[in-house]
């Protein structure tokens, strides 16, 4: 395992307002399982998208088997032997498993697809990953674990030299994961290279040969997995220089909780217990991707089927639908503002006023909408050419302000649920948004804030709950707890 398969040198990638990668180095050997580690936002996904051809680097070079490599598209990357299994699966839900596995590469006789041959090849690929479901099944009809196995099998049908697996275990059971590990071992025995991305250090120890750790868009170190302890890896991920962050000049809110969550249970996803939020308090939800933060907020908002035992204002509370949650005084700023929080084809004014009136947006009078929304938009400092501008034309930060303005315009907010509210925002926009959140808290609103940016939680939350694999495992006061201790619990699931 000494032959160099892949070398990425000095990789730089900039996005508006941020440097995602700053001179990253990654070297992968032939026949190696190379683990790529780092906290959320460290740059792992961006680096792999550059390798796959989805992004072009601003600086840096890539060598694949010693030859310069610069894929311009994902298709070019795949043709060169780079197969990526993304955490957000790139399968076509309305096609069958067999059609997905051999999309664009189906065996043919003239212009006709040889369906029996395609089904046979698909069956071989599924058998290799231990999947037993029929290849004729539509992908949308499969459970998420089966979809994950389909994505892995799809990568195996390509003649890939490098296979990237991004959190492949997030939805898999123990037996399914062991089958995947068997596939990984057989791939490396054939001389292929596997880049394995995971937050679960027990998996890294079980399958990895070497590991590269990214921190804040830079390479923090390269480690031999067998001779490195989990604590050493965690220290590299979170950094030794992180200082204690204290919420400046803010007394801890007191009084009876406004929202008490006794239990939220979604079988197979989350089982969260005993979280409460007082009026004026910001409670942070920390955790890795897949820890259950989004599921918890959606369940409280009535946006998915869940067993919820909670109290609001001292009374039993369970929202059977988002509309019922809104009537009760809950407001949700979702993770995907473009897909779930806004109607991009409508104006700023109509988006900001839509929650204030229970009617379809196309029936909302323009003048009334502008009058209702004006105070909130002005108070939040939304920058636009006017309320008639399409909200899809605004910057990300201003779009997020419009989502918040929607709930302020409606009024009556008791509990504000925020899911990754600063994703994609620059530093200034983040500061503006958190000022607005603190203003709402100052008016007695209880805030549940889910974020993968731990430094933002320690700076803005009064208390922090850590979620790990669907359960809340620890509680911290950021006034007295070092950020490194919270990060350790987030990554390892170990309670203090």
UniProtKB/TrEMBL annotation:
Pfam family, one: ABC_tran
Domain ABC transporter: 6-241, 253-494
Entry keyword annotation includes Nucleotide-binding: yes
Alphabetically ordered keywords of this record: ATP-binding, Nucleotide-binding, Repeat, Transport
InterPro entries: AAA+_ATPase (IPR003593), ABC_carbohydrate_import_ATPase (IPR050107), ABC_transporter-like_ATP-bd (IPR003439), ABC_transporter-like_CS (IPR017871), P-loop_NTPase (IPR027417)
Superkingdom per UniProt: Bacteria
One GO MF term attached to the UniProt entry: ATP binding
PANTHER family named among the record's database cross-references: CARBOHYDRATE TRANSPORT ATP-BINDING PROTEIN MG119-RELATED, GALACTOFURANOSE TRANSPORTER ATP-BINDING PROTEIN YTFR
Protein name stated in the entry: Sugar ABC transporter ATP-binding protein
């Amino acid at each position: 395992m000494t032959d160099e398969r892949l070398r990425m040198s000095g990789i730089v990638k900039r996005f508006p307002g941020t440097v995602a990668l700053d001179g990253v180095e990654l070297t992968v050997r032939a026949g190696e399982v190379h683990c790529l580690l780092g906290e959320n936002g460290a740059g792992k996904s961006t680096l792999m998208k550059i390798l796959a051809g989805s992004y072009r680097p601003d600086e840096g070079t890539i060598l694949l088997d010693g030859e310069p490599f610069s894929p311009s598209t994902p298709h070019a990357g795949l043709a060169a032997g780079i197969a990526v299994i993304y955490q957000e699966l790139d399968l076509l839900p309305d096609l069958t498993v067999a059609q997905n596995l051999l999309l664009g590469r189906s065996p043919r006789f003239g212009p006709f697809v040889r369906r029996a041959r395609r089904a046979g090849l698909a069956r071989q690929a599924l058998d290799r990953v231990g999947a037993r479901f029929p290849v004729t099944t539509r992908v949308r009809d499969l459970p998420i674990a089966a979809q994950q196995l389909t994505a892995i099998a799809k990568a195996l049908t390509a003649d890939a030299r490098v296979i990237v697996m991004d959190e492949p275990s997030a939805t898999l059971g123990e037996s399914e994961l062991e089958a995947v590990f068997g596939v990984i071992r057989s791939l490396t025995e054939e001389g292929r290279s596997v880049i394995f991305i995971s937050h679960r250090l027990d998996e890294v120890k079980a399958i990895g040969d070497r590991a590269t750790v990214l921190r804040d868009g830079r390479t923090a170190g390269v480690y031999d997995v067998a001779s490195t302890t989990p604590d050493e890896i965690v220290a590299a991920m979170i950094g030794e220089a992180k200082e204690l962050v204290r919420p400046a000049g803010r007394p801890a809110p007191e009084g009876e909780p406004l929202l008490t969550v006794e239990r939220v249970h979604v079988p197979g996803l989350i089982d969260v217990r005993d979280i409460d939020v007082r009026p004026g308090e910001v409670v942070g939800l920390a955790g890795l991707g897949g820890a259950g933060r989004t599921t918890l907020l959606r369940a409280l908002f009535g946006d998915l089927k869940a067993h919820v035992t909670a109290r609001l204002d001292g009374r039993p509370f369970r929202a059977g639908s988002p509309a019922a949650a809104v009537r009760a005084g809950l407001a949700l700023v979702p993770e995907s503002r473009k897909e779930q929080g806004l109607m991009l084809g409508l104006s700023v004014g109509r988006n900001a006023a839509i929650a204030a009136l229970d009617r379809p947006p196309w029936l909302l009078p323009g003048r009334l909408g502008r009058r209702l929304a004006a105070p909130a938009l002005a108070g939040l400092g939304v920058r636009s050419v006017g309320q008639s501008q399409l909200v899809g034309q605004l910057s990300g930060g201003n779009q997020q302000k419009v989502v918040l303005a929607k709930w302020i315009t409606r009024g009556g907010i008791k509990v504000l649920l925020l899911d990754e509210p600063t994703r994609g925002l620059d530093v200034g926009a983040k500061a503006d948004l958190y000022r607005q959140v603190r203003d709402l808290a100052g008016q007695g609103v209880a805030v549940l804030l889910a974020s993968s940016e731990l430094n933002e939680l320690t700076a803005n939350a009064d208390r922090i709950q850590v979620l790990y694999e669907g359960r809340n495992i620890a509680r911290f006061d950021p006034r007295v707890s070092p950020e490194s201790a919270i990060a350790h619990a987030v990554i390892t699931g170990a309670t203090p």
